[in-house]
Amino acid sequence: MLPTDDLVQAARRPAVIDTPLGIVEFSVSLGSEVLPDVPNAVWRLPNGAHLHRWQHSDAAVDLLIGSIDSPPWDGSEPIPMWAGIWQVRATAKVSGLVFSAELTDLPADACGGPDPGECLAAVSVENEHFMVSIGGPDSELLAMQAADGRLVPSGWARLLPSDVDDTITEYGVRYADPARVAWHLPGLAAADVARLCIATAWCPRDDDRPAAWFAVDIPLDTAYYQLTAGPT
User: Fold this and answer.
1) What whole-number distance in Å separates Cα of residue 96 and Cα of residue 33?
2) Quick one: which of 95, 88, 99, 97 has its CA closest to 193?
3) Which of 5, 54, 90, 93 is deepest in the core (most CB within 10 A)?
4) Looking at the DSSP assignment, which residues form a beta bridge with residue 117?
């Protein structure tokens, strides 16, 4: 994803995001193997973002994660937002991929669940004070990205459900209560690369202006530019 020669190594620790309603935790599986929470190496970018890297016998897995600035959809004040870009570069055949994000340690008064939109797979959690959303591409968008062949392998286009219920197909987005979303994706051939962006945002609760939900609908290229931009 990024050359690391000029980056400063940081302490190895799990990639998590602290929000007002809990902690966002991530996981990734290659085939049936769930990778450890702690990566093999972590580097800090000059702007404060971090690059986490797992070395597996069949793939190199990167997670570029950090806080980003994203103009609100309605021109209002910016809200806290984080983006994480996963990249899996296969060195041998990988039978399947699963990326997941989950908001844990919820307060007793918080409730949530699936909150999808057009081309968006998302979950949202709220209480009387805050709303937190986690989102990424839905199966329809992933199928379109596969047809383009730039972010995920082109062969995925015929495997990903683009216009049917994900729950009745082998691949697609799965939700679990109260706030977990997982992307079950096809496998990779040696030298294949797959990239996926998962965003998290939060804001004061406002039923008429769900700013956090709109914020997580962010293109991967936009998030990457923000995460790799020089410090301001």
Assistant:
1) 10
2) 88
3) 90
4) 120
Q: What is the pLDDT of residue 72?
A: 67
Tell me the residue type at 20. P
Query: What is the pLDDT, as a whole number, of residue 20?
Result: 97
**CA-CA-CA-CA dihedral for 175, 104, 36, 226, to nearest 10:** 80
Long-range contacts from 48-54, C-beta under 8 angstroms, 24+ separation: 48/231, 49/227, 49/228, 50/10, 50/15, 51/1, 51/2, 51/4, 51/7, 52/15, 53/4, 54/28
* Calpha distance 1→31 (Å, rounded): 21
Contacts of residue 208, Cβ cutoff 8 Å, sequence gap at least 6: none
| Helical spans, DSSP H, in the chain | 139-148, 211-215, 220-228
pLDDT category at 73 given cuts 50, 70, 90 is low
Q: Cα–Cα distance between 12 and 215 in angstroms, integer? A: 29
Distance between CA 35 and CA 38 in Å, rounded? 8
Cα 90-95-96 angle, rounded to 5 deg: 85
Going from the C-alpha of 143 to that of each of 47, 137, 160, the distances in angstroms are: 33, 10, 6
Structure tokens at 20: 């007002």
Structure tokens at 66: 């950090």
Span 33-51, mean pLDDT?
Answer: 97
Q: Is 166 helix (H, G, I), strand (E, B) or coil?
A: helix
Are the beta carbons of 194 and 188 closer than 8 angstroms? Answer: yes
Helix (H) or strand (E) holding 89: strand 81-90
